Amino acid sequence: MKNKITIRDVAREADVSIATVSYVLNGRTDMRISEQTRKKVLQVINLLDYTPNQSAQALATNRNRMIALYLTPDASVLNKAEQMCFIHLLSSFLHEKNYDLIYLSDNYTEQFDNADAIIGYDISAEYFHQIGDVNFSPLLAVHCFIEDPLFFQINSDYARIAGEASLFFQGEPYTLYSLKTPNIQKQQYLEKNFSKVHYVEDFHDLDNTDGENILVMDQTLQELLKNHPSLYYVPSMSAEKAEALITCVEYALLRTPLKQHNILI
Predict the structure, then answer these.
(1) Cβ atoms of 124 and 141 closer than 8 Å
(2) What is the pLDDT of residue 97?
(3) A GO molecular-function term, please (predicted)?
(4) Considering the entire predicted model, what is its pTM?
């Protein structure tokens, strides 16, 4: 018996993402897909005799084009500033992809059915699972480690960044200045990859930086330390990470099984 052809097979043969195949199948005109790519995907579909799963198609077409966002409750002033930076960048990117973004406060603990997917940004694993327990929409973690293969998590590649910082500072010691995170697993990853980490909760934690080589990934800290003579800044949020997030949303909506759910960028 011939193995059933899947959307993943089509994507592999056409050398495109699963999300791109989904866009072509559903006639999406709001995505930037070249005519050449569209024709190639359709040719592969015809070649492989691929028949889309009807339930998956229904999931893909019956959408509200809305992403919900949960943030850390009771965050510090600096963390709130970083949250606003993230919201600004994410909402601008989602707008280009024809998605709306809605913020749900920690007081909203009921099931939220209007969103196609839900993002937990820099929250504890406990809070993440609390959200997941009352929702059926796909749930994704951004800038927090969940360590659960059922969920996509999109984080910075700390090992790569540590290597870049070492090159930038020419092997000299440096300190990672990072906003305090409620995600214990993220904190453990930071301390595993960086020999010296200084957590920042308020402005006074930045008083004694003279003579230090400093690495930052938070935009808020970069703004506060931009005049420091030895500063290396690697933005925690980038267009590449936002693209990966959207791709993961599409994978999750199509209920596409993947071996790798831990995306490091």
Answers:
(1) no
(2) 86
(3) DNA-binding transcription factor activity
(4) 0.75
